[in-house]
Amino acid sequence: MDSDPATDAAAGSPANREAEPGRLDWCARVAVRPMRRMQPGKGCKPYMAPRDVAAEADLVLLGSSLDVGAEENPKRNSCGGPFSHENNRAFITEVRDLRRSAQPIRFFHMSRFELVTARQAALPGFDPQFLVQRAVGTRDPAQFFAADRSPQCQGKRCGWDFGRWETRSSEISLKDLIDRRDAGNSRNAVYYLPRAGSDDRIFGPFAALADLRDRAYRAWRVDLAKRAIELGEYDAVILNHKFDHYFLPGFWLESDRYPTATAYVESKDSVWSAAPQDYGYAEYVAGWHALAADLRRAGVPFAVALTPHPWLSEADDRASSQDERALILQAVQSASTVILDVATTYGRSPDEWKALVGAKGAKVVRVDSRCGFERGKAW
Quick one: 187 exposed, middle or buried, by C-beta within 10 A (0-12, 13-18, 19+)? Predict the structure, then answer.
C-alpha cells in the first residue's frame, strides 16, 4: 500500500499541519474547486489564489460535469469559468509554475460519470439509448409540477422548463439533443434536479441519468475521460458514486420522501424526476464496477472518494446474485488513489480502513470532512 503522508490528515507529520480555517479542506492539504468557489460578498474573487494553492495544497480537486474541451462562448461563464478543460489546464499550469515545494502537487478532475449534461450530449457519440428510463406508470416532470397543489405551487403555479439550468450549459437544450436522435424519448428519461430555492416555481434538469451497465455508454465516457486528461493535464479523474441514492429508496419525485414540490424544495436535496425502470442498487453497482474496470483497462488513472459507510460492510442487495460489497471493494482497490474520509469509520479504525482500501497498491489520502469544505457539496 502506498500511503500519502503529505495529505494524510492523521499522519501527524509537521508537513501535515491542520489546514487554516477557510483555506484548505478536510483537515488535510487538499483544495476543493479553488478556482470556482468565490469569497462571499466579493463577486467573482476565488477563495484561494493560484499562489496560495501552490504554497499550501498537495492535492487539488477541480472541474465539474459542465467541462468540455473548449468553451465556445467564453463570456457566458465569466464567474469561475469558462467551464472547459482548457481553462482548467491554464490554472493547473499556473499553479505548477508557482510551486516551490519538492512535494508534487496533484490535480484530479471531478467528473460525474452517471450524469449526461446538455454540453456532453452535444458531443459526438451521444446516444439517447444510454439514458435510464422512468418506471412504467410514473409521470414525466412536466405533468408532476403542473398538477402540484402543495404550498410551493399555490398562488403561482409550478412548471417545468428544460432551459431552467441549461442557459449556462449549452446553446441547445437537453430535450432537443435527446429528441433529435430519438424523437419523444426526452419524456421517458430520468433527470437530475439540483437543489431548489425557497422561491422557485419553475424547475428543470441539470442532467439526465445514464445506465452504467451500457457498454457503449461506458466506452464513450472512457474516451471522454482520456480526452479530458489530455486537454486538462489532470493526474486522474474522480470516479464518483451515488451508492446512497440507489441503496436507500425514494430519491425521486412522487416518492414518500418527495411527494410534492414543497417536500422537494424544503429538503434542499438533489432529486431525480421519476423512479427508474429496472435500475436499482444492484444494477448501478454492477455498472459502476464495470466502469472502473474499463477505465483501468484503458489506462485512465482514476481516484475514488469514499466514506467507510455500509457500502463495504453490509450494503448488499439480497435479491441479486452478486455481492455488491465485494464489487465495490474490488473497484475501490483498483483505483490509483483512494480519498478516505474518516469522519465516519463505521466499525473499523481509520488505520484498518486504510489498510483495506489500499491493499492492492492504491495511494490512500486520509481526510476528515468535518472541517473545511463539506464533502457533500463537493461531489
Answer: middle
The Cα 33–Cα 22 span in angstroms is 13
Q: What is the pTM of this model?
A: 0.89
Bond prior to 82 in cis (omega within 30° of 0) = yes
Give CA angle at 307 (304, 311), nearest 5°: 90
Q: Which of 359, 141, 124 is nearest to 264 (CA)?
A: 141
Q: Enumerate residues 6+ apart whose C-beta is below 8 A from 248.
A: none
What does the radius of gyration of the chain's CA atoms come to, in whole angstroms? Answer: 21
Contact 232, 63 (CB under 8 A): yes
What pLDDT, on a 0 to 100 scale, did the predictor assign at position 248?
83
Chain segment 313-330, per-residue pLDDT in tens: 666 666 777 889 899 999
Residues of the chain with pLDDT under 70: 1-22, 70-78, 166-171, 310-318, 373-379
